[in-house]
Write a structure and sequence with these properties.
This protein is 0% helix and 58% strand. The chain has strands at residues 7-11, 18-23, 29-35, 39-43, 50-58, 61-69. The chain is globular.
Length: 71
């Protein structure tokens, strides 16, 4: 769900070995994780409230989405 409080699920159908990065509003990388399956559940309870960017890079392609963390 977006906004999220504790967990968020990332679905990436064609991600064989993608890298996922979460960046906070100040541009700081707060979480990095390699994605190796179609669904990854992330614990975001330690992230600060506010708007974050989820960036997924898989080979030559990149996708970014906004994630709102609420408390």
């Amino acid at each position: 769900p977006n906004p999220a409080e504790t967990f968020v699920s990332i679905f990436c159908l064609d991600c064989s070995d993608a890298m996922m990065t979460i960046i906070d509003a100040s541009g700081r990388v707060v979480l990095e994780q390699r994605l190796s399956s179609e669904r990854t559940d992330l614990d975001v309870s330690s992230l600060s409230s506010g708007l974050h960017v989820i960036r997924i890079i898989d080979g030559e392609s990149m996708e970014q989405k906004f994630l709102s963390i609420t408390r």
